[in-house]
Structures are given as structure tokens and as C-alpha cells.
Amino acid sequence: MPHFDLSLDELRAYKPALTAPDDFDVFWEKTLAEAGEYALDARFEPVDLPYTAVDVFDVTFAGFGGHPVKGWLVLPAGTRGPIPAVVQYIGYNGGRGLPHTHLQWAAAGFAHFVMDTRGQGSGGSVGDTPDPVGSAPAVAGFMTQGIQDPHDYFYRRVYTDAVRAVEAARSHPLVDASRVAVVGGSQGGGISIAVAGLVPDLRAVAPDVPFLCHFGRAATLTERHPYREIALYLKTHIGQDERVFRTLSYFDGMNFAARATAPGLFSVALEDQTCPPSTVFAAYNHWAGPERSMEVYAFNDHEGGGSFQQAVQLQWVPRHLRG
């Protein structure tokens, strides 16, 4: 697919108005305070696997509403003292998968905490975390579950789980709680941006081709799912546009990026119709952290830079975690 969005020069300057409602910060302060009323209860059960280079733990912790959320913790074998950690969030409808797919960061000498995404895990990688909360009528998928009210919206639960995942990782005695980075691709990238705006003391944030940014433009620019779910909902629920986009404004990566306090490493693919380049740059250009950089993949679609971007991360993330 050839380039379909703004030119690269236009993208580098693209900085649309933020959409955060006046009570954005209060909404999230209350949401996280409510989650904090439940004991984190992070449990790390050793997993017996034929690995000699890593130790793997099956993790359970209390997320939004005290609901149990699963994850993996992968440590370099024989770790004796606290080491920096990388917390990873998963792409749309993927789950935590199997432990052998998460060896990169432990091989680099870091603790690697992988959060399962509630209700997902049937597309690409298996998940193990149910979402016990129902919703009003919604389009198939996750983008419109609870979209009538920000308190009910699916990603309110997911973003809260993601903050609690950082807390769970930090609670392990072999993790250096002062040196934590968050990473993710697509949906995982969008979640990492949200966490960057909600957790003030991260060392680094690395969102790849991030989803969940600049909803107003994404829903009218691309025909691809998952953003297309929003348009399909509004096609049936005629007249609900203002209500829907007000809900989404509480979850827009742009608004979290403007509250970020850590360095950020982004990537974008200029032929990406799943997460259009202008939506990625909308968050990037609002990034408030002390440092930001963008890797551009000019002829790639939503796969982004793949292993090339992993190589960039393996140089960039350790510089911030070990510094």
C-alpha cells in the first residue's frame, strides 16, 4: 500500500489540539485510587521448564476491581540481586502467550514482566485473563465495549491493569523498582503511552506503531479494524458521535503523551493503515518527557520495523535502565 497519510514533513509538524476533558486528571486519580483499595496480592509461581538460561514465574495480581490478571515474569537464571525491569503490553486480541516467546529482555540481563490483557488472547497468542465486566450493546471486538460512558469503557479496566502490572513487577524482590521501562507494539504501544502518563517515575517508554491515539482522526481515516469498530458502531447508533468521542477522550494516547515524564522511543510505519502515521505522530509530538525519538519505516505496514526495531530498542532501553 503506498503512502496515504500526510507527508513526512507534515507528520513531523502535526500536533492537533488535545482532547482531554477538564476532569481528565481527576478521573484517572479516582480510578487508580479505587484500584488501590484492593490489595495487589502479586503472586509469582515458579514454572518448571527445560530452560537453563532463564527462570520463569507464572504471575497473578489484582487489577481493576481486584480482578485477577495473569502475566509472566522471566528472569536471567540465577539472578541474585535487584535488576532493572521491562514491562511489556500485548497487541490487540493477543494474550501473554507462552514463556518461550519472551526471552529477549532476560537475555539482555533484565527482568521481563509480560502482562496478559483481560478478555483477549484469541488472536495470535493465547491469553488467560477473563474480563468479568459486561457492557451495553457493542460492535464485535473491544473498541466499543462500554463506550457510552468512560467509567464503563473497556480500556479503563485495561489501563488500570497496566498500572498495576508495573506495581506488581516492582513488588518482586529481584526487581529494582527504581529502574523500570514499559514497552509494547500496536495496542501494547498505546497502553505503554497511557502508563507513561499515569506512572510518574518510569525510566523509559518504547511504543511501537502505537494504537489508541487520536481517535477522532483514526476513525475517519482508515477502513481497517480495530478503529473501524468505532465507525461501525456510529453507523448503527446514529447521533451518538459526541458522546462516543467524549468517552474516547479519556483514553486517547495524545492526552497521556502530554503528561509523560520519561524518555520515549517511538516507531511509525508510513504505509500503516491499521495505526495511521498521523495518529502516531499526534501522540509523539505531544510527548512531554525529557527526550523523544522516532524511528520511521517508510515502506512498511503495521508490522513496522520488526526485528530492526527490536535491535534499536536493545540499544536504547538499556542506556536508560542502566544509566
TrEMBL record:
Pfam families in alphabetical order: AXE1 (PF05448)
Gene3D superfamilies: alpha/beta hydrolase
InterPro entries xref list: AB_hydrolase_fold, AXE1_dom, CE7
Binding locations of substrate: 92
Active-site residue numbers: 186, 272, 302
Domain Acetyl xylan esterase: residue ranges: 1-318
Entry's Gene Ontology BP terms: polysaccharide metabolic process
PANTHER family linked to this entry: CEPHALOSPORIN-C DEACETYLASE
Name the record gives this protein: Acetylxylan esterase
